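Z., the sequence and structure:
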Amino acid sequence: MKTTRRLVGALLAAIPATALAATVQIINISADWFNAVPGPGITISHSGSTATVRWGVGDPNPADQSGYNFTPNPAGISANVPPPGGPFDLGTFEHLNFPIFAPFLQSVDLMVTADVLINGNPVGTLNLVFDFTHDETTNDLNPCPYGGANGQGININGCADKVTVTSGGGPTDFSGGGGKFTLTTVGFSQNGGATVMSNFLTIENQNNVADLFISITGSLQSEIPEPGSLVLIAIALLGVVGVMRRRLQR
């Protein structure tokens, strides 16, 4: 009997645990612009939940300033992990690109924050900081500094501006409910996360949009054996019982 117990214990110890899915939620997403350069003539504010930056004197209408907007995803994110989830949309960046006179934005930082829940339980706060640098081009150059000839392609309305984004944060780990999860910044994309950009050109006289994406990996760990393992255990136990019966009958 001791031998039987030892064999059963060894079989149970060898069973792989099942990775159970957990619901990971990213909620209460908010955003703030800060650290604008140069400071004078640059206005940072909010319009509802949208964080805004405005600069320049519009030409011909002085009120038509250029600017950045970031609007958090109001619905937040809810993902069952595993399998790995994403890309998920944290919010929308816009560059309002209009003809302006100085002052011109050179750089500004964006902080995106959100609460993280695992199976409804708060486990921490996500903090992402992005550094934006801006090249406000002269509209009537030909060829333009970026994108080739003036009057065609990306420069159809005058020379496109260049926006460069650098992420200062790496993957962020969260634990809760017996599992570990990693939230990774995918980056800014103009085609649903398929192509991530560190810089992009923006067309003059229109709003230019890119969305910010993240991905989520991880799982909970269960003590429940996988179905296939249960079948193997049953076969092995039947074999052990058969051997012990034959020994007792001798």
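The first strand starts at residue 17 and ends at 20. Residues 22-242 form one domain.

Let me know what you think.
H.
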